Amino acid sequence: MSDSAATGTIAFLGLGHMGGPMAANLIKAGHSVVGYDPVPAAVEAANAHGVPMAASAAEAAAGAAVVLTMLPSGQHVLDAYRGANGAPGLLSTAAPGTMFLDCSTINVDEAREAAAIALDAGHRSVDAPVSGGVVGAEAGTLTFMVGALPEDFDTVKPILELMGKRIVHCGDHGAGQAAKVCNNMILGVSMIAVSEAFVLGEKLGLTHQALFDVAANASGQCWALTTNCPVPGPVPTSPANRDYQPGFAGALMAKDLRLALNALESTGVAAQMGPLASKIYDEFAAGGGAGRDFSGIITDIRDKSAT
After folding, report:
1. SS3 270
2. Is the pLDDT reported for residue 240 higher than 90?
3. Is the pLDDT of residue 87 over 70?
4. Which residues are catalytic?
5. For 96-155, what is the HEC assignment?
6. Which among 2, 122, 169, 307 is most buried, taking Cβ atoms within 10 Å?
């Protein structure tokens, strides 16, 4: 492929639990990668996986064909693009026509704003949030939901395929974030429903296995039940069998549901379950569930249920 963005150096900015393994998979595939993260522990882990580091984000971006960001929030992305606290913005330090590939999970409106300022600065822009958690990042089996112009999607797809197994072009700028927020609202609501059903089953004298065997093969079947089952036993690989070690942490579910709530409010959708799920997971994260798998919500439901 002649497009330099598909073959040139990738600046990978944000090397946490997700970004570090993703960058390592790019290097394993033969890509030239230079990383940056302000957190020393993330730098140490990335170095252990063979990711060379730049002294700053701006230094990493200066010689890159692709600037890939994996940052905690939309404000972090916008500040990185524009510059903040005396640091130069990536848009001003990158070479003209650089591909800005944001894999963070942020507000849809922020993704569209990031794309607009990147384009205004003479660059290209793609939003490509991920699903699959740390296990998927390490295994290279992530799902990418991509918002991009068709020609830009064609450029980044070979890169994304080195980190994931399913790459879905969802539409124009911001569409990847839109798909992510809708998907995770479904996931949050369904995990609460599955957890409530198991606690109800316990009260009614059903074994976990009996309820699972019925629901997993009937109309209650869903990912929250058959892959991330919130009780130990029926699905041996689910976090419930590891004392709810994530997985997908409660803090991240709370964050994603707040993004869904923002989108619901900005669009005027008359939703009830999404906002309620957001409230439930906010309380779960604040009450000690932030670092537990989001399926640990069942313990809160059980604790609050009448004896």
Report:
1. coil
2. yes
3. yes
4. 180
5. CCCEEEECCCCCHHHHHHHHHHHHHCCCEEEECCEECHHHHHHHCCEEEEEECCHHHHHH
6. 169
pLDDT of residue 5: 67
Distances (CA, A) of 50 to 47, 69, 141, 144, 256: 5, 18, 20, 24, 31
Burial of 269 (0-12, 13-18, 19+ CB in 10 A): exposed
Q: Is 129 in contact with 145 (CB distance < 8 Å)?
A: yes
| β-pairing verdict for 124-127 and 99-102 | parallel
Residue in the block written with tokens 């709530």: 261
pLDDT in tens, 17-54: 899 999 999 999 999 999 999 999 999 988 888 899 99
State how far the Cα of 232 lies from the Cα of 238, in Å rounded to an integer.
7
Are the beta carbons of 101 and 129 closer than 8 angstroms?
A: no
- What is the rounded (10 degree) CA torsion for 20, 22, 27, 33? -70
Question: Does residue 274 sit in helix, strand or coil?
Answer: helix
Burial (CB count within 10 angstroms: exposed 0-12, middle 13-18, buried 19+), residue 139? middle
